[in-house]
Design goal:
By secondary structure, the protein is of the alpha+beta class. It has helices at residues 2-34, 39-85, 95-101; strands spanning 102-113, 116-125, 129-130. It has three helices and three strands; from the N terminus they run αααβββ. It has a three-stranded antiparallel sheet with strand order 1-2-3. Strand 1 (102-113) and strand 2 form a beta hairpin.
Length: 133
């Protein structure tokens, strides 16, 4: 949620700056046409504004993609929590429950540490993936 808020705030700031840049371009052009600003200075400002505008548009595209990914993650987490709430008092794990909660289970090769046999087991849950404990 906090990441979504931060992304939205940054996106709003980028949109605001893009609107300001549009106004600055129009103003610089009008000043040049009126003869208030020399053409060389106007061209320099227009190039600077255009460079910044391209950068802001690229940043906007990246922020939008990040925001969509974050929102999808939050939605998946909310769905997973809703499913888990159904099983808070679960006493026995049956096949339908397992299929609803778990996407896959990976069982690693056996290995020994200090004479004890070990095996890595990774459980990938639906909606949220692997959760390392």
């Amino acid at each position: 949620m906090e990441q979504t808020k931060a992304l939205r705030a940054t996106l709003a700031a980028v949109d605001k700056r893009l609107a300001e840049l549009e106004k600055l371009v129009v103003s610089a052009y009008e000043d040049k046409v009126k003869g208030v600003m020399p053409e060389a200075l106007c061209v320099q400002l227009m190039n600077r504004y255009e460079d910044e505008r391209r950068g802001k548009l690229e940043q906007r595209t990246q922020l939008t993609a990040q925001l969509e990914a974050t929102q999808e993650d939050e939605q998946a987490t909310d769905e997973w929590l809703a499913v888990i709430r159904d099983y808070v008092q679960l006493e026995e794990l049956d096949r339908p429950t397992l299929l609803r909660l778990v996407k896959r289970i990976e069982i690693g090769e056996k290995y020994e540490i200090a004479g004890e046999t070990h095996r890595d087991i990774k459980i990938y849950y639906n909606f949220v993936g692997y959760v390392e404990l």
